[in-house]
Design a protein that fits this description.
Layout (H helix, E strand, L loop, with lengths): L7 E3 L3 E5 L5 H10 L1 H5 L12 H17 L3 E7 L5 E8 L6 E8 L8 H14 L6 E6 L4 H9 L3 E11 L5 E10 L12 E3 L6
Parallel strand pairs: 5-6
Antiparallel strand pairs: 1-2, 1-9, 2-3, 3-4, 4-5, 6-8, 7-8
Helix pairs in contact: 1-3
Length: 202
């Protein structure tokens, strides 16, 4: 896929900055402080807490994947004080012309529109690329707050896949699939974004 997203994306209140290995201690602290919140919806959180060495290795992998074009993962930070609020990313797993957006927030950052703001910015970046025609967001139907985000941004609920995955507790879980295309009249452009690249290896 010919796609080269920026290293940093700024919105009105947020900075989406690609993960670096130096972020390991901050990421670990954020995950550890929010385990119960994250484990409710995020299967990966069930394997936490991880030692700092494992977090460093994870972030090294994220750096390689970003540079190699495997996927593009970002930390969500506050523009006001650079606090880490969560994580988000673009995943090329829905076909050659599309990208999927994922996101998570620390408990204290929920309910403030941050995930919507981050998802809007990534949607703008994705649909601004000639090779990308569609963007999807997938979520558990029971996660009402998460499902409200694509709806708010003008995505369409195109299907629900029954029993596609398991909940973090091991029960069958359906998956709602929301999608928007480049020419979709429902797409509402978000706030102006500023992007930054800093000598990334391509």
């Amino acid at each position: 896929m010919q796609f080269a997203p920026p290293n940093e994306i700024s919105t009105q209140r947020l900075v989406l900055r690609r993960w670096r290995t130096a972020d390991a201690r901050l990421l670990k602290a954020t995950i550890d402080e929010n385990l119960a919140h994250l484990q409710e919806w995020m299967p990966w959180a069930l394997a936490e807490p991880s030692p700092i060495e494992a977090i460093e290795q994870r972030l090294e992998l994220f750096e390689r994947q970003f540079d190699d074009g495997a996927e593009w993962l970002y930390g969500i930070r506050s523009r006001a004080d650079d606090a880490l609020l969560g994580g988000t990313g673009l995943h090329p797993r829905i076909g050659p012309d599309g990208l999927e957006i994922g996101y998570w927030l620390r408990a204290s950052a929920t309910g403030r529109g941050y995930a919507t703001e981050a998802a809007r910015a990534l949607t703008e970046v994705a649909l601004g690329q000639p090779a990308i025609e569609r963007v999807q967001i997938r979520c558990d139907p029971r996660n009402v707050a998460s499902a409200a985000i694509p709806k708010r941004l003008g995505f369409h609920h195109i299907l629900t896949i029954e029993n596609e995955q398991e909940t973090p507790q091991g029960a069958p879980r359906d998956t709602m699939v929301w999608e928007i295309t480049r020419d979709d009249p429902g797409w509402r452009s978000g706030p102006a974004i500023r992007t930054l690249n800093d000598n990334v290896r391509r």
